TrEMBL record:
Keywords: Cell wall, Membrane, Peptidoglycan-anchor, Secreted, Signal, Transmembrane, Transmembrane helix
Keyword Cell membrane: no
Record-annotated Gram-positive cocci surface proteins LPxTG domain positions: 271-308
Record's compositionally biased regions (Low complexity): 242-268
Domain of life from the UniProt record: Bacteria
Stored InterPro entries: LPXTG_anchor
Residue span of region Disordered: 242-272
Keyword presence, Secreted: yes
Organism (species): Arthrobacter glacialis
Protein name, entry field: Gram-positive cocci surface proteins LPxTG domain-containing protein
NCBIfam families linked: LPXTG_anchor
């Protein structure tokens, strides 16, 4: 703002409407110059600026336009998501850059009334927390704060910066975070897709589960992808070959003998050899006893006859 014809070295009060913007101290020749900032939120329109020093007053009209602005569908987003950015009140037909946390995401060219829209991707590595989204054409700037949640993640054994080493056929633990609450998350092993299982997240979007890498999986680098609708996360793993099965115990065959084999056979009515010998002996003894008994009887009769 420029002043002239005011008293020398005098403080001149500057007002926009009824709002005091500040003051200008004139030089020895009664002139003065100073820049003022129109507060954001000032109602657009034709507003009076008044410069007053005692009884000396001058007035001019200032056309106030709306401040450049940026709007979002929501001020909450997640790293890795798409975000629609709308700008207005920028100069017409002008390129403006969109940055988040100092990272340039896109360029928007405004139309004939200073309006523009673009859909940008929030980088997956954006730190969780409140981040400034800034739109500027170099001279005019609009800023809005965005609450960014961490991107969906899946982690295996070890730290998040290590590539887990897993043996095919073995079980290992996976931990997921950043997924929608109470949602089903599928776990698929790539590159040839193999479903490892499906789990349901808790209220905070996290879940821990145990899966098994198929024993037939080839050794080398593989990727496990966790997905719940449009939300995905991946984990690079190094798979080692499965254990080889233990060999079956060997059986030693006994060579067949060329000697003739003897077998004992029997037919109905036959007796074992030990049984037939015993029976014959018993019969012989029985016959001998009968003979001796008969001889004894005969001798007894003869003795009685002699006595008579």
């Amino acid at each position: 703002m420029n002043l002239a014809n005011y008293p020398a070295t005098t403080a001149v009060e500057i007002k926009l409407g009824t709002t005091v913007l500040g003051s200008i101290t004139t030089a020895a020749d009664g002139t003065g110059t100073k820049a003022f900032t129109i507060a954001a939120g000032t109602t657009p329109g034709n507003l009076s600026i008044t410069a007053t020093a005692g009884t000396k007053t001058a007035t001019t009209t200032l056309i106030v336009t709306s401040s450049p602005a940026v709007t979002l569908p929501s001020e909450d987003t997640q790293a890795g998501d798409d975000l629609k950015v709308s700008v207005e009140h920028f100069p017409a037909d002008t390129e403006v850059t969109v940055s988040l946390g100092g990272v340039v995401l896109a360029t928007i060219t405004t139309d004939s009334i200073g309006v523009g829209t673009a859909t940008v991707k929030v980088p997956r590595n954006t730190p969780a927390g409140t981040v400034d989204l800034v739109v500027t054409d170099g001279t005019k700037t609009a800023t809005i704060q965005v609450d960014v949640a961490a991107a969906p993640a899946v982690n295996g054994p070890g730290t998040s910066t290590e590539v887990p080493s897993i043996q095919a056929g073995k079980k290992f633990e996976l931990t997921m975070s950043g997924f929608p609450a109470n949602s089903d998350v599928s776990l698929v092993l790539h590159s040839t897709p193999v479903l490892l299982g499906t789990v349901t997240t808790k209220d905070d979007g996290t879940v821990t589960t145990t899966v098994t890498i198929p024993a037939s999986t080839e050794a080398g680098a593989h990727t496990i992808v966790a997905s719940a609708g449009s939300k995905t996360a991946s984990l690079l793993v190094q798979v080692s070959a499965a254990d080889k099965p233990s060999p079956s115990p060997s059986t030693t065959k006994t060579p067949a003998s060329n000697a003739p084999a003897t077998t004992a056979t029997s037919t109905a009515g036959d007796l074992a050899s030990t049984g037939s010998t015993s029976v014959a002996l018993a019969l012989a003894m029985g016959g001998l006893l009968l003979v001796m008994a008969g001889a004894g009887t005969l001798l007894a009769r003869r003795s009685r006859r002699s006595a008579h």
